[in-house]
Amino acid sequence: MTRLPTWADVVLVPVISLLLAAIVSALVLLAIGQSPVEALTVMVRGALMSPYGWGYTLYYATSFIFTGLSVSVAYHAGLFNIGSEGQAQLGGLGVALCCLLLPWPHWTLALAGAMVAGAAFGAAWAAIPAWLQAKRGSHIVITTIMFNYIAAALMIWLLVDFLRPQGSMDPASARFGATVALPRFHEMPIIGDFFLRYTEAGEIKLNAKGQPLYQQVPANVSFFLALLACFGTWVLLWHTRLGYMIRTFGKSEKAARYAGISAVKITMIAMLISGGLAGLMAINNVMGASGRLLQNSAEGAGFIGIAVALMGRNHPFGIVLAAVLFGFLYQGGAQLGIETKIPMELRIVMQGLVILFTGALDQMVRMMLAWVFRARAAA
């Protein structure tokens, strides 16, 4: 098959895949008697055309960046980590214990401690399947899937029997103290100005004390941590000796072994980093948005991370773009359920189509483009 130019592989293939997913989504909407134009208008307006929409879109994107990076690091080592969901839930446990058990005087110190705890718990949960793969030959896909269900059951047991406050019926931990609350976008200097609330006359809304009112959003400072994680992952994989060993092992295990690279060592290290990145996701939703540990705190972001990594070509920059796209689908899909008769579950269909065309049918798009480039070269 004709090798595609780099620009076509990186840009053209994902764009065509997205267009195909959009076309099929439009056909599904027409089949149920709804207008694709109306649906797109509502999604764009609800996810991108207001501070409220952007606040939620970037909140979802933050979680997807962490889990996308988690899948990507393992992928570069030739490992398919489908356990980011469970690792993120265990990361939430680490963050919750850190915030509940230690008296933090300021959110900056609490953030540093929670990052260590979340990453450590996520890495520890990934270490077991990694060891089973490296030492016992158990397939990483099977073990990580199984550990997702074990993590879900474990979290329910801990929340109901140990972390739930006395007299509460809600399977959730106690709320964290005020000193560990992370600044949200509407509370930050400069950034907060984008979330001011205005009257119909275009004037800033004021409270009874004459202070400006802000549109409250869940997006918080962890978004910038996610971007730093992207930069750190890029440096690790492409500019360090360890990253070279990980990528070499992922390309050819036999060649890596011949070069003296330990399969056990690389498998363990790659999965520990992968699990740690998934665990860091809890900074966003557990510490930043909820302020407590909830049942199913990962909210499916671990599974979405697989699609984000695939669509982002397992490159940190591509993962950021793909995460924002899926954040748009999440928030825009929620707006569909509010403003139209289109079922909110349609966003799951759209996500599935994006995954289908960017993942399973990716090779089909490449073959089509290869035929076009070959025909042009022959002309």
Task: Write structural notes for this entry.
70% of the residues lie in helices and 0% in strands. The chain has 379 residues and is mainly alpha-helical. The protein has a domain at 65-184 and 219-323. Helix 3 (51-76) packs across helix 13 (316-339). The longest helix is centred in the first third of the chain and has 30 residues, at 107-136. The model has no long low-confidence stretch (mean pLDDT 92).
Q: In percent, how much strand structure appears in the residues? A: under 5%
How are helices and strands ordered from N to C?
HHHHHHHHHHHHHHH
Q: Treating each run of at least 4 consecutive H or I residues as one helix, how many helices? A: 15
Rg is 22 Å
DSSP summary, beta strand count: 0
Mean pLDDT: 92
Low-pLDDT residue spans: none
How would a crystallographer describe the biggest sheet?
Answer: none
Through-space gap between termini? 18 Å
The structure class reads: mainly alpha
Helix content percent band: over 70%
The shape is globular
Looking at this protein, list some descriptive labels:
single chain, 379 residues, mainly alpha, 70% helix, globular
Give the secondary structure arrangement, pairings included.
Layout: H1 6-31, H2 36-48, H3 51-76, H4 84-101, H5 107-136, H6 140-163, H7 222-239, H8 241-251, H9 253-258, H10 263-280, H11 282-290, H12 301-311, H13 316-339, H14 346-360, H15 362-378
